[in-house]
Amino acid sequence: MTREKAVPAALKDEREAVENRIHGLRRELDAMTADATSHDDEHNPEGTTAYERAQISSLLDRALRERDELEQAVQRARAGDYGRCERCGHDIGPQRLEALPAARRCVDCATRR
Predict the structure, then answer these.
(1) Where are the extended beta strands (E) located within the chain?
(2) Are residues 23 and 55 in the same domain?
(3) Same structural domain for residues 24 and 46?
(4) Residue 69 · residue 102 · CB < 8 Å
(5) Strand-pair partners of 84
């Protein structure tokens, strides 16, 4: 029987923060959609409503991708591979993981591309 490894607290915290951001952005989009019936975006001279909706949608898409990356990092942690570069196999380093909890590559490999 294999035993799951612990998920680092920083990774859990980051995932929770992203989930909160996703919920907030979805609430904003829902509110804009509800307000759309009372605002005529077609006659909005600045186009601000459409711009804001597009901006929030873009932020939501980015947050969803970030959540997916963090979930993959959680899976790597459970498998015992978290913090190890997927390219060279060396440690990623605590400073990089602190800055980018879902990092898959060490600094050297990330800069090589």
Answers:
(1) none
(2) yes
(3) yes
(4) yes
(5) 91
User: Residue 99 and residue 58: Cα distance in Å, rounded?
Assistant: 22
Q: Can you tell me the distance from the alpha carbon of 16 to that of 22, in angstroms, rounded to the nearest whole number?
A: 10
Q: Are residues 101 and 78 in the same domain?
A: no
| Joined tokens for residue 48 | 């601000």
Domain of residue 95: give its range.
84-113
CA 108 to chain centre: 23
Where is pLDDT greater, at 97 or 37? 97
User: Domains in the chain: how many in total?
Assistant: 2
User: Tokens 């909005």 — which residue?
Assistant: 44
> For residue 84, which phi and psi values (nearest 5 degrees)?
-110, 130
Determine the pLDDT at residue 1.
40
Rounded CA-CA distance 106/29 in Å is 36
26-83: pLDDT as tens digits: 999 999 888 765 555 555 555 678 889 999 999 999 999 999 999 999 999 999 999 9
